[in-house]
């Protein structure tokens, strides 16, 4: 178990979230600890977040995107990540490009590189490379490509979101991945993390996108994984590319 003082040694950090809420769920505690330690942090939102309630007619796709980006900003502010404007890549929710040659991939890589360099990132927080959601895996690939093009890439810490619920044996770390896993004690900031998760109102309770009752909401069972006093991270022990 690593403790709150761990955050102080990470330097300036950038969190890369596939969707609005992943930053709070996967590493909201660490972000809050970074703020407490006086370390600057910035955020990247990869997808446009519009697929959670695709049948809504009251909210067009641009309106859904605006709602979710507003929730993202609120959550970041709660976690203390409000010193600089987030980077919104605006890639299609559910179809984030995952390989060189895919439409939008190269442009997103360049924008990520520039953002990391502009913020002098010493650490980047990114979903676990085989987190079982296609956008999470694609986000890992985008970040890996961006880091590969940097002469002095930041440290990469990989956080867990959907692996808690959906992971198969093939999704979990193996010796071939060359990573170590650890738990971070976030007991001092659990309440802050929970407030950030609740800031994503459209994803945790009905009442925002009211005309799409079949739309996505995080279940109580899923949310329970993020209510505890620790977060789980993986870190490469050598330069290993996500598979």
Task: Describe the fold and architecture.
The protein is an alpha/beta fold and 243 residues long. It is 35% helix and 17% strand. The chain contains eight helices and seven strands. The chain is globular.
Biggest sheet overview: 7 strands, mixed
Per the CATH scheme, the topology name is Rossmann fold
* Radius of gyration, CA atoms, in whole angstroms: 17 Å
Overall residue-averaged pLDDT value: 96
Low-confidence spans: pLDDT under 50, at least 5 residues?
none
Q: Order of strands across the biggest sheet?
A: 3-2-1-4-5-7-6
The helix-and-strand class reads: alpha/beta
Shape: globular
Task: State the helix count.
Answer: 8
Classify the helix fraction into a percent range.
25-40%
Domain unit count: 1
User: Which architecture does the CATH hierarchy give at level 2?
Assistant: 3-Layer(aba) Sandwich
N-to-C SSE series?
EHEHEHEHEHEHHHE
Topology, please?
Elements (H helix, E strand, L loop, with lengths): L12 E5 L4 H15 L4 E7 L13 H19 L7 E5 L13 H14 L4 E5 L6 H15 L6 E5 L3 H4 L12 E7 L4 H9 L2 H4 L15 H5 L5 E7 L7
Parallel strand pairs: 1-2, 1-4, 2-3, 4-5
Antiparallel strand pairs: 5-7, 6-7
Helix pairs in contact: 1-2, 1-6, 2-6, 3-4
